Amino acid sequence: MTDHLLLLIAFAFFVSVVFAVLQRDEPRAQVRLGAMLFGAFVAAAVILGWLMYALPL
């Protein structure tokens, strides 16, 4: 069975790779930007998930 968190991490990884390759020319800068974007995507999704969890249905 697929977990939502696993899908989130896979999506964040692939989007981060594409954005980093399109935005930077040097491989070192691509890796740095990709890592920062990946962390930001995952952190934002987890934080927003916890905030929405507290909202009543």
Describe the structure in your own words:
The chain is mainly α and 57 residues long. The protein has 2 helices and no strands. The longest helix is centred in the last third of the chain and has 28 residues, at 27-54. The radius of gyration is 14 Å and the shape is elongated.
Question: What is the structural class?
Answer: mainly alpha
The separation of the N and C termini measures 26 Å
Residues in helices, as a percent range: over 70%
- Mean pLDDT, all residues: 93
Number of domains: 1
Strand content: under 5%
Tell me the major beta sheet.
none
Please outline the helices and strands.
Elements: H1 4-23, H2 27-54
Helix pairs in contact: 1-2
Summarize this structure as a short list of keywords or feature phrases.
57 residues; mainly alpha; 0% strand
